Amino acid sequence: MTQTYLLEWMDLTVTSTLNPGKTDLTMITPIQLEAIIKKATEQTSLIQSKFIVQVFSLTKEKQIKILVGNYYLSLLFLLDRIEEINTNSDQYKENLKEVAATLISCLKELVTFIELRFANYLNKPFPVIEKKIYESSVVDSSSNKVLCKLSTDQMALILRAGDESRILKAKSMSMVFKTIVPFLSTPFKKDLSYQSVRSKSYNAEDKDKEIAIESLKKIIEKIKSY
Q1: What span, in angstroms and rounded, lies between the C-alpha atoms of 37 and 42?
Q2: Residue-wise over 71-98: b if at least 16 C-beta within 10 A, else e?
Q3: Best CA proximity match to 205, nearest among 156, 153, 148
Q4: Sign of dihedral through CA atoms 99, 104, 108, 110?
Q5: First-residue to last-residue Cα distance in the chain
Q6: Count of CB atoms within 10 A of residue 215's CB?
Q7: CA 157/CA 212 separation, integer angstroms
Q8: What secondary structure does DSSP assign to 37-54, as a single string?
């Protein structure tokens, strides 16, 4: 039985409609923006109820894990994309900021929904995300940040490996990223979202893996020289 992709509208809106690389954002009217905000809110509730139905229509635990995992990673990807577009695009004026803020809030709500209701089906148990998730997790003072010369993808791989090898110990992998990432920046991005960085650890390219490994080798050689 083929399952309907419940994030189809959210996906299209983030990756196409509001993507400055694919759409002339200046052509979107205020009425269209209001419609997007309204539908995003409606979709958030609808997705949750329909997702529960999809989960309970499956009989095998492996199938449920695949379904939950795929939706979870898709939500983290979409959240990463809209936050990145919202931060980096000069075309995102005030009227579009409201739309972006609404979508970010809705996607975070859906991420929280899966972490709360279906944590047992994720690869690792995740903590209950407090209401603070809807607030900025970024440290305002740039003086409190450490510049990391790796990309967010490479950084994510090292943090994930540190958690899974138990070198970094916290209540969960999510807590590792939430605690460390806000105090880091890259040469290309000052403010990092711990959720976005975490999502990148699951779909990194081979090139990023190689760079992360070479970076760790440099650390090893440095330690040997002490």
Answers
A1: 9
A2: bbebbbbbbbbbbebbeebeebeeebee
A3: 153
A4: positive
A5: 60
A6: 17
A7: 7
A8: HHHHHHHHHHHHHHHHHH
Position 106: which residue type? Answer: C
Kindly give, in sequence order, each residue whose CB lies less than 8 Å from that of residue 27, ignoring residues fewer than 6 positions away: none
Pair 150, 211: CB distance under 8 Å: yes
The predicted model scores a pTM of: 0.57
Phi, then psi, of 184 in degrees rounded to 5: -115, 155
pLDDT at 40 over 90: yes
Distances in Å between the Cα of 204 and the Cα atoms of 152, 207, 209 are 10, 8, 7
Where does the pLDDT of residue 94 fall: very low under 50, low under 70, confident under 90, or very high at 90 and above? low
